[in-house]
Amino acid sequence: MTPVENRPRHRKWSQMSTLQRSIIMAYAFAIVLFLVGELVSEGFDSPNHILTILVISSFVGYVGIGQTLVILTGGIDLSIAYLMNATAVFMTGLVASHIAPTDVVLIIVALGGALVGFVNGIGIVFFNIPPLVMTLGMNSVLEGIVLVYTNGTPTGNAPIMIHYLVDGHIGPIPVDLLVWAVLAIVVGVMLSLTVFGRRLYAVGNSVTGSYLSGINVGRTLIGTYMIAGFFTGIAGMLLTGFAGYSYLGMGDAYLLPSIAVVVIGGASIVGGRGNYVGTIAGAIIITVLTTILTILNMPIAARDILYGVVILAALLLYGRARSSQ
Amino acid sequence: MVNSRHSTSWTLGKDIPTLLSFMVLAILLAVNAAVDSHFFTGFSLLTFFTDAIPLVLVAIGQFAVILTGGIDLSVGSTVSIANTFVAMYMVQKLGSMVEVSLLMILLGIVAGMVNGIVIHYGRIQPILVTLATMSIYEGVALLILPSPGGSVPTSLTSALTGALMDIPIAVIIMAFLVVLWFWARRTRFVLHLVSIGSDESAARMNGVRVGVIKIAAYGLSGFFAALSGLYLAAQTTSGDPNIGAPLTLLSIAAVVIGGVRLSGGRGSLLGVMAGALILSILGSIMYFAGVSSYYQDLFQGLILLVAVAISSYRRLRNRYMQT
Amino acid sequence: MGEMAVAMQGIYKNFGPVQALINVEFHAKKGEVHGLVGENGAGKSTLIKVLSGTILPTKGQCEVYGQPAVLRSPLQAQSFGIQTVFQELTLVPDLTVADNVLNLREGHHLLGRTSSRALTVQVEKLLSELGVDDINPAAFVRDLTLPHRQMIEIVKAIYRKPKILILDEATSALLTPQVEWLFATVRRLTKEGSTVLFTSHRWEEVKTLTENMTIFRNGEYVGTYGTDSISEDDVTTLMTGRHIGNLYPARVAARSDVRLVVRELHSDVLQNVNLTLHSGEILGIGGLQGQGQRELFLSLFGAAPARGAFEISGRAVTIHSPTDAIRQGMGIGLVPEDRKTEGLFLNLGVLDNVTVPTLSRISRWGFIQSKQQRQFFSTATRSLQIKLANVQQPVSELSGGNQQKVVLAKWLAAKSQILLLYDVTRGVDVGTKHDIYALMVDLAAQGVAILFYSSETAEVVHLAHRVLVMYEGAICEEIDANDLTVSRVVGASFRSSPEVLHG
Q1: Strands C164-168 and C82-85
Q2: Rg of chain B over all Cα atoms, to the nearest angstrom
Q3: Distance between CA B253 and CA A130 in Å, rounded?
Q4: Band of the pLDDT at A70, cuts 50, 70, 90?
Q5: 3-state secondary structure C127-139
Q6: Which of A105, A127, A308, C136 is deepest in the core (most CB within 10 A)?
Q7: Is the minimum CB–CB distance between B220 and chain C shorter than 8 Å?
């Protein structure tokens, strides 16, 4: 006798998984914030402004890709800030020095991001270094490399192609949102339809269980950090398109939001639960909130405080550990 | 058969991670002495210890938290709160100096305890709670002092960064901390911190009041962060709402380099101090060796990774099986 | 009639919808050793947790020495003189033996300090008084062997002069001389007026040590009996609620073709293990707990380092990792000891859990073929009757029995021809046990070779074709079908060590 599926497709709230509930709450919260925005400032919810907000959301959304993957395995990536900065300065620097054609530079720099992820993975898997420490050390090393390479002043500008990807429009639609959509689909497909994605979730749920189910845990973890590094590298390059050039410390502001958006999106910080759909909601929430606070002319101090309070609220709402009996 | 093999004394001899951090520190001190011939003659040494104190203090607070298996990402912001508070409100009067210092310390303790309370009663991972409060406390520091400025009584500066009978105050502070540790490490409180980090449910079964102890650990972290902020104010003679930011990750690095187990339950304050000194001395070495300060982060990162790689490396085929 | 040490009446305990205790009563006299007997999940552990203050009953009354007692915390239970030694150890690994024994609970001053030297001397004295001379009080608990840790756990409880000492499977990790030590200590304590409540997987120990026993079944109180007045068969019947004959399906004869041969397997724990497993055979592994059974299962699966020669269906093979063991052509599957951490992915759905080991077989170009996945899944679960809302339901929401079926289904999906079942019925309800027995016999009939270890010897005896008894990492005896009884297997487990229990 096969197991009986005795429920229709539409599941009631109480029958949904924790993750599904969290994601629905996150999107509902995003919508509420949009409504609040309209109350605060007329025209907030005009189609154009919504598109603008989505474009701004996309940056933390790009950074959130790598962080989502790593957190799903139960790790954390603190090397995001200077990996972004590194790919940004190397891209503008190499393009300015005309060593190679722009598209070759872009590919090489993105692969450089994957290389950094590979080293993170090696340290974590073969040297048994906790992810927090490995990526913290890596961040410091990358900061040094950025400083030494740029000698304190990054050179060059964002290539036209990057400009177009971030700033261009096709009809009314910003190219940036199409880029985001494509990356989101790629990540979504990878996580939910591929063997690699299943193994990633399995490792995040139980390393021992994965090992005893024949999964090569080390390879899966190293692969995850490589892919995360690749996407974070791309995020760094795209970020130059926003400012037009690269500068020191440009990734700093993205480290903590990258973790916040993943968690607000319903992922478990201990791994094994979450997906990129949730991270997108997290990115939008953070951005709408920041925008509203800016419109209200709140001082930075109040923004920081509210920002923290919102993260705490989201955690208290659905980020709590199961109570011990 | 009872062979009296029970050595009960000082166990640093077996504490390999801590020993390792001492060795690295010794090597770096030697290197520093080689590049700076005046290192052991007064001013350099004074500067070195004085510069290291803020990180030493924050790292000690971080150590208390990591010993329980937690982590505190908000320490840097708490340092900033204390720092701006002092720069904003302290005036050149003994009464004010005492009053403001006490209030500042209270603020630090409260900030830390709030972390502990939310972590324990809210059942949320420490890394997430302190990530959020990091932002909140940063905001509070900015509320107190929106941009660098303010002033600090000169007598505070001379009291904390000067010397007493030719011994740098900074050295006296460190000596005091070492003595404090030798007293504290056998207190029930520290044993409880260790128990929680070692095995929380076992600790609970043994009657350790896990919630109270955890909240105290975070309170202690806030306390030391506040002291660090005070010292920084004395050092720089002004306030800066962003001054603490780099200390968060550095304090974690110092604790880890000091041989403390990141998952809790194991470590020595002596190692933590060594870790903080290692991170501080790199800047000094580079300055005297004429190496660009741009390399400082690179070396800090490499030392962290090498130290932790050596202490965590296990050559086991079945490393994924819990035993 | 003596004074009552413990009197419990009308105790209920619900975990969500699950009723762990239903109107249970329990009485123990002052100065006696009282056994609590029942299968896994019968309620004895829950009752012990109630009495030790780790869980609060849903309702019910409890009196300790005539005083009404509401035990809200271990500390409160201790104030009534109740000390508990749990099956899972409660020592803090990163503290020394001395700190663990003396230091954690004593006093209330957080800033009070103790000299580690004085403490060590004190504990050394205590240990030698209790006749324990091979444990260094200054050693860190993390460096002790499991039996030593268990002894320290017992010493810790005894040090506090318990009026009521609860030993919950406290002998499970002890070696024979240490069991003897424990029994002598317990007898001395009861002579001094303490009451000892005792549970053990080993019938012999219960019979030897206790005066009375209370039997539990499915969360209910069955009765209290004098140990001398009741036979093992009666106890088994009372525990299971039926006769042994009805409990287990009939065996099907094994075939003659050899599936797996292991020669001269050595490791840190294992000593020269040789075994031959035929297709259709259920080969039981017996022995006291912790004699290398876990290491044997892990080694055969490539998950623990070991040296030795393997042959599968006549072909020499090497197994370096579970990946090797699972590979088609090897076809080994392992149901591990701890299903929650070793067998399952709690946040993943049932469908994904079942197909994790077979991902490469249900995918093309790295993409999962959803149709094939469903096919594998329904083939695997056809004979298992897993109760679930839908196939995406996270396994964390399933009951223990259904979770174990999911773990089994992983290997049915992989069409494993050699199944290593390590304590597969641990913590599952009686209904599921039946299903699992039936499945095992059914699989064997289809030619699957099964290596089977259980902490309940009766299971091994009634399901296996023959049994290999392990002692200290080696196989010390083989018992074949003609000879298979519980007492024979238990006897062999003990015979390998000096006969010490009676005295």
Answers
A1: parallel
A2: 20
A3: 12
A4: very high
A5: HHHCCCCCCCCCC
A6: A308
A7: no
Burial of C71 (0-12, 13-18, 19+ CB in 10 A): buried
* Whole-complex ipTM: 0.82
Q: Within an 8 Å CB–CB cutoff, is residue C332 touching chain A? A: no
* Whether the predicted pLDDT of C485 surpasses 70: yes
How many residues are recorded in chain A?
Answer: 325
The rounded distance, in Å, linking the Cα atoms of C319 and C321 is 6
CB contact under 8 A, C394 and A17: yes
Question: How many residue contacts between B and C have a Cβ separation below 8 Å?
Answer: 100
How far is C353 from C395, CA to CA, in rounded Å?
8
Across the interface, whether the CB atoms of C110 and B189 are under 8 A apart is answered yes
Number of C-beta neighbours around residue A20 at 10 A: 15
Q: Choose from C82, C94, C134, C340 for mutation: most chain B CBs within 10 A.
A: C94
Band (pLDDT 50/70/90 cuts) for residue C480 is confident
pLDDT at C146: 81
Q: Is the pLDDT of residue C245 over 80?
A: no
CA of A299, closest CA in chain C: separation in Å?
A: 41
CA B76: distance to chain centroid?
11
Mean pLDDT along residues C446-475? 89
Work out the percent of chain A whose per-residue pLDDT is above 90. Answer: 52
pLDDT of residue A11: 61
Query: Which of B134, B308, B317, B318 has the highest number of chain A CBs within 10 A, making it the mutation to test binding with A?
Result: B308
CA atoms of C195 and C189, how far apart (whole Å) = 8
Q: Tell me which architecture the domain covering C242-331+416-498 has in CATH.
A: 3-Layer(aba) Sandwich (3.40)
Q: For the domain B42-300, what is the CATH code?
A: 1.10.3470
How does DSSP assign B91-127, residue by residue?
-SSHHHHHHHHHHHHHHHHHHHHHHHHHHHHHT--HH
Question: 3-state DSSP call for residue C7?
Answer: strand
Structure tokens at B131: 């990530």
Q: Is B182 touching C (CB cutoff 8 A)?
A: no
Helix, coil or strand: residue B302: helix
Query: Chain A residue with minimal CA distance to C331?
Result: A214
Task: Give domain limits for chain C.
Answer: 4-241, 242-331+416-498, 340-414
Residues C73-97, mean pLDDT to the nearest whole number = 87
Sole residue written with tokens 């048994």: A128
The answer to whether residues A90 and A116 touch, using CB atoms and an 8 Å cutoff, is: no
* pLDDT tens, residue by residue, C97-155: 998 888 666 655 777 777 778 888 888 999 998 888 889 999 999 888 888 898 999 99
Q: Residue written as tokens 């076992």? A: B202
Domain ranges (residues) in chain B: 42-300
- Catalogue all structural domains in chain A, each as residue range(s) with its CATH number: 45-317 (1.10.3470)
Q: Could you tell me which residues come within 8 angstroms of residue A74 by beta carbon, excluding any fewer than 6 positions away?
A: A203, A204, A207, A270, A271, A272
Q: Using the beta-carbon criterion (under 8 Å), do A128 and B252 form an inter-chain contact?
A: no
CATH code of domain C4-241? 3.40.50.300
Identical fold between C4-241 and C242-331+416-498: yes
Supply the mean pLDDT for chain A.
88
CA distances (Å), origin B184, targets B64, B68, C35, C115, C182:
12, 16, 44, 11, 37
Phi and psi at residue B192, to the nearest 5° = -70, -40
Side chain identity at residue A129, one-letter code: I
